[in-house]
Amino acid sequence: MIRGWLGFSLRAETQSPQMVRVLPKSPAASAGIKPADVLLGVGTRPITDYVDAGNAFFYLIPGQPGRVKLLRGVEQLESPLTPTRPQAE
Q: Are 50 and 62 in contact (CB under 8 A)?
């Protein structure tokens, strides 16, 4: 099974799943995700901590569209997001 790739990194040392880096031309960048955004949900899965995020990413399938819920400052946002196949190093 090939897992979906989104093209962002989360801050692992904090409780909340906060974006640290968003790669250019990645599915995350196309969805408008920015560094410092906090991940609130992936598809129908609510995200409350870093572990929830990791579990939600496990089920992402390349090419299968979904949605992400984010917190940017005090504003909650929702955006379409379609994972791709992992990028070659």
A: no
- Domain spanning 8-81: CATH superfamily: PDZ domain (2.30.42.10)
pLDDT in tens, the chain (89 residues): 778 899 999 988 888 899 999 999 999 999 999 999 999 999 889 999 988 998 888 888 999 999 999 999 999 999 999 999 987 64
Domain boundaries of the chain, sorted by first residue:
8-81
Are 28 and 10 spatial neighbours (Cβ–Cβ below 8 Å)? no
SS3 at position 82: coil
Tokens of 5: 């790739």
Report d(CA 65, CA 63) in Å as an integer.
Answer: 6
pLDDT of residue 88: 61
Angle at 57 between CA 52 and CA 58, to 5 degrees: 100
